[in-house]
């Protein structure tokens, strides 16, 4: 990753970006890939693109999207005020420029409030894996409804490996890294938080397994479905509405 890129993100998002980069460099990379994918999509049109971001958090993915093109308007949705308030603080410049607005609704409620075929791109990183499987299915149905024809879903996230033994080994390696990095940083509170969160991610009613996730998109009616750039459990999914 280019140094200027790192400096931009570290400068705007601050400590949160640096910490995530340290614990899980694949996660920050995935946000950059979401931005790059939007950049390629935006290069094919002169029309202003209407983007909905699900789970903006502190603004890492939002900044990657804002960096992709000036010809976009983003509605960034996150139902955790503490997270979204940091994004509001970090990204005020783009709010003033009229390129960024926020919704504090949960993703499904926010999508339900949007008209049919009104959105060009639904983008997200590390949000969908947090959803209960049933809620995620409803979010996909609503995403399909609100997207315009030719509109795209771009999601960088944790896609569990279909080979369950291999997946377990990957998670074990991941846990070893959390311990190594966070003990060295003396961040035991964060270590506890990540391990507890991981149990949620890995639970049967949350886990987003690759083949099931891709089949679900196909069943909704999406096409041109791809899962690329896999690093461990992290991968970039894209899909298009016909
Ligand atoms: C792990 S963070 C990802 C933030 C950012 N996209 C990134 O990659 O760094 C996931 C975010 O999703 C939000 N989130 C989780 N469930 C949500 C829901 N049902 N609706 C809206 N936001 C949600 C959380 O509050 C959190 O800020």
Describe this structure in words.
By secondary structure, the protein is α/β, with parallel strands linked by helices. It has a single domain (3-240), classed as Vaccinia Virus protein VP39 (Rossmann fold), CATH 3.40.50. Helix content is 53%, strand content 21%. Strands 3-2-1-4-5-7-6 form a 7-stranded mixed sheet, with helices on both faces. Helix 9 (164-184) packs antiparallel against helix 10 (188-202). The protein is globular. The two termini are 33 Å apart. The structure holds S-adenosylmethionine.
Which features characterize this protein?
single chain, 242 residues, Rossmann fold, seven-stranded mixed β-sheet, 21% strand, globular, binds S-adenosylmethionine
């Amino acid at each position: 990753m280019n140094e200027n890129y790192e400096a931009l993100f570290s400068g705007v998002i601050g400590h949160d970006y640096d910490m995530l980069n340290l614990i899980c460099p694949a996660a920050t990379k995935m946000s950059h890939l979401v931005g790059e994918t939007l950049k390629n999509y935006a290069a094919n049109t002169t029309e202003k693109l209407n983007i909905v971001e699900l789970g903006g958090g502190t603004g890492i993915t939002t900044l990657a999207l804002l960096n992709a093109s000036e010809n976009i308007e983003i509605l960034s949705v996150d139902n955790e005020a503490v997270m979204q308030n940091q994004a509001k603080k970090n990204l005020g410049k783009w709010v003033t420029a009229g390129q960024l607005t926020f919704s504090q609704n949960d993703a499904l409620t926010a999508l339900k409030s949007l008209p049919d075929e009104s959105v060009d791109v639904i983008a997200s990183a590390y949000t969908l894996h947090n959803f209960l499987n049933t809620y995620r299915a409803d979010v996909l149905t609503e995403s399909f409804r609100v997207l315009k024809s030719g509109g795209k879903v771009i999601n960088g996230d944790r896609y569990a490996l279909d080979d369950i033994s291999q997946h377990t080994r990957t998670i074990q390696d991941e846990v070893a890294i959390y311990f190594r990095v966070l003990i060295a940083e003396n961040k035991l509170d964060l270590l506890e938080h990540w391990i507890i969160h991981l149990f949620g991610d890995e639970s049967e009613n949350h886990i987003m397994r690759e083949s099931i996730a891709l089949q679900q998109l196909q069943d909704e009616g999406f096409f041109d479905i791809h899962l690329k750039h896999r690093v461990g459990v992290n991968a970039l999914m894209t899909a298009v509405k016909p």
